[in-house]
Structures are given as structure tokens and as C-alpha cells.
Amino acid sequence: MADSDPRPARSAERTQRNAERTRAAILAAAQEAFSTKGYAAAGIRDITAMAGVNPALVSRYFGSKEKLYEAALAELLNADVVTGLPRARFGEGVVRLLTAEAGRQRNPLPMMMLASADPTARAITGRLLAALFLEPLARWYGDARGAEKAACFSVIASGLTVYRELYPLPELDTAMSTETRAWLVATFQALID
After folding, report:
1. Among candidate residues 67, 61, 66, the one with its CA nearest the CA of residue 25
2. What is the CATH number of the domain that holds 38?
3. pTM for the whole thing?
4. Is residue 71 assigned to a domain?
5. Regions in the chain scoring below 50 on pLDDT
6. 3-state SS of 11-80?
7. Residues 51 and 22 occupy one common structural domain
8. For residues 169 and 83, what is the distance between their CA atoms, to the nearest angstrom?
């Protein structure tokens, strides 16, 4: 008995890999567009042009702009990035994450902030922020004030992001003073200690 032809299996694998790459390219382009232009100004054609794909593929993979925004943000809202930091050096780790330059994981905060003017995107952001970041962070803090500490974390991180990325203050750029960096480290660390 002859073996079956392995070409159809390889073709299916190649198609699956291409679909995964296409979906990933659309998500990356959407994250870039939503983080720099905002939800309302980021068009599907702009996003797919950046991704180098046909606009119809957004509908195929995501269904709508709202679902694309949801998938793009959900991919970035990962509490493990913060809760995986060592508790003893938590403040340092957070400040390093929030002030790192190229090569770092994209910060979801600009995307969230720029989407806040649109009611649909704001509702998606609020739901995902609570479920994927604030609730896991509150559990990680673990004490009776866990939810309050998670909220405080968000306030400080959001403020830093606003004035580093959206409305840049020169005092918070890459040449941030040692004193300011130390204050930020101590502030984030105080949520643990």
C-alpha cells in the first residue's frame, strides 16, 4: 500500500502559518495606528496598508474595526508583564518598563488614552482593562487593599505615560534626572512594601 502524498499536509501548514503571520501583521499595524492616531482617526485602509494586506482581511480575521481594536488591546494588556517582576525590586522593574526605549514591548496606555474619545472604544478599553490588568494586579497585590493599589498603580503609570509619550515633558525623557527616577521607583515600590 502506498503512503499518502505529504504535499497537502505541508500546504495546509504553510497556509496556516501565512494566516498567522497575516493576522499578526494586522494586529501590529493596528496597535501602531491606534497608539499614534487614536481609534477614531485610524482607518482600516491605513492599518492594512501598514500591514501590507488587503483591507478585506480585517473582516475575515476580526469582523470589524471594534473587534480589531479589542484584539489589538487585549494582546497588549498583560498583567504578567508587571506581576512577573520581583517584588523586592518591583519599583525599579516598573520604571524600567515604562521608560524603556526601542525594542521594548509596546505600552498599551497611549492606545487606551487616544481611544477614550470614542464611546465604543472607551467601553472596550474599560472592560479589558478591568479583566486583563486591574483584577489580576489586585489579586497579585493580595491584601485587602489590592484593588486600591492596582488603581494607584494605574494612575501613576498613566500619568507618566501621558507626559512621556503623548504630551512629552523634556524632564521625563530619556535623560530623566536620577532624583526623579528614584522618586518614581520609590512610589511604585511603596505599593508593595
Report:
1. 61
2. 1.10.10.60
3. 0.84
4. no
5. 103
6. HHHHHHHHHHHHHHHHHHHHHHHHHHCCCCCCCHHHHHHHHCCCCHHHHHHCCCHHHHHHHHHHHHCCCH
7. yes
8. 28
Neighbours of 179 (CB within 10 A): 8
The amino acid present at 142, given as its one-letter code, is G
| Phi, psi torsion values for 25, nearest 5 degrees | -65, -40
| Site of grid cell 488614552 | 113
Q: What amino acid occupies position 101?
A: E
- List of long-range contacts for 127-131, beta carbons under 8 Å, 24+ apart: 128/70, 128/73, 128/74, 128/77, 129/77, 129/154
> Which candidate, 111, 10, 12, 107, places its Cα nearest to that of 68?
111
C-alpha cell of 55? Answer: 483591507
Residue by residue, DSSP assigns 126-193 as HHHIIIIIIHHHHHHH-STTHHHHHHHHHHHHHHHHIIIIIS--GGGSTT--HHHHHHHHHHHHHTT-
pLDDT digits (tens, 9 = 90+) for 97-136: 998 865 456 889 999 999 999 999 999 999 999 999 999 9
For residue 6, which amino acid is it?
Answer: P
Domain shared by 89 and 141, yes or no: yes
